[in-house]
Amino acid sequence: MKRMIRNRISVVAGSLLAVGLLGASAAWGPLAINTAAAAGSLAAATTSSADTVYEVDGVHSVVLFRIRHSGVGFFWGRFNKGDGEFFIDEENPSNSFFRATIDMNSVDTGNEKRDDHLKASDFFNARQYGEATFESTGFTAKGGENMYELTGNLTLMGETRPVTATVEYGGSGEMRGKKVQGFEATFEIKRSDFGITTYLPPDRGDGGPLGNTVRITLGVEGSEK
Question: Which residues contact 109 (CB under 8 A, 6 or more apart)?
Fold first, then answer.
């Protein structure tokens, strides 16, 4: 099946993943992320073709975040709702694309009081910035089998910043009569770049009550639309 995908850099107001980004559960519809070579302005639009478009399978996908706590610990959380699609072209990686939207109100750290605090203006300000978005701008092979570099634009708290992720491609196959693909992506952001400075140490490092570096890990499986 041949399908044309409009690759546009999204400027949708996002909200920080601050103490982290993303998470997925059965509540996830398609997660998303996009690639093509649109290194121009955010308003630029190009078209690329994909053999198949994959919607993220929320039952078999997860997106986690990790941040330093008290300068010594590593704290984990996730988000439970989002939307998206992707395609990885094994023969021509530049045709691949990734696009994602995250519901910032779905943050889940296993503690309701803490989750409410993260949704408030101290962190995500989810009332004003209910979504975080990602659109890819490039996808290239990296040293090592099934390893790639993914670049794109992350929009959080109304701020858009470029990010680079390392991707391990899990492969493609078939499940219940549908094509499937899977991958794991990892990248890091500085939450202060998106205006999240609550409990940030004076040197903007990773000591103090809550560190600045947030590591985001996505384990994604998708099935053809």
Answer: 75, 76, 77, 78, 115, 118
